[in-house]
Amino acid sequence: MKLAIIKTGGKQYVAKEGDSFRIEKLEGSAGDKISFAEVLLVSENDQVMTGTPHVAGKTVEAEIVEQGRAAKVIVMKYKAKSRYKKKNGHRQPYTKVKITAIK
């Protein structure tokens, strides 16, 4: 089984062929092909290659499944006895990708 650890959007993700997961928003629309060059580790069968900091010559190919926004997070600021209350909401944009190949 092929496995890779990639870095995108300031975070690290474990990528296996066929897996799909949400990452920080990337430009593109559904169906577009993208590739991740920042591969930190690749494991094929029993052989493990680690990078310093990236594994040379390895890329992870993926396909954008959807662009979306996560569920709303409510942010509430409140100070007791001073009649101060502030309500704010936030929806984080994301890109859902499906890993097609680890090369």
Output the keywords:
0% helix; elongated; mainly beta; four-stranded antiparallel β-sheet; 10 strands; 103 residues; 64% strand
DSSP strand tally: 10
| C-alpha-based Rg, rounded | 19 Å
CA(first)-CA(last) distance: 13 Å
**Sheet/helix structural class:** mainly beta
Q: Into which percent range does the helicity of residues fall?
A: under 10%
* Strand content range: over 45%
The count of helical stretches stands at 0
Physical arrangement of strands within the biggest beta sheet: 2-1-5-6
Query: What is the average of the pLDDT values?
Result: 94
SSE string, helices as H and strands as E: EEEEEEEEEE
Q: How would you characterize the largest beta sheet?
A: 4 strands, antiparallel
Principal-axis shape: elongated
Number of domains: 1
**What's the quaternary structure here?**
single chain
Low-confidence stretches: none
Task: Report on this structure.
It is a single chain. This protein has one domain (2-102). It contains no helices and 10 strands. A 4-stranded antiparallel β-sheet has the order 2-1-5-6, with no helix packed on it. Strands 3-10-7-4 form a 4-stranded antiparallel β-sheet, with no helix packed on it. Helix content is 0%, strand content 64%. The chain has 103 residues and is an all-beta fold.
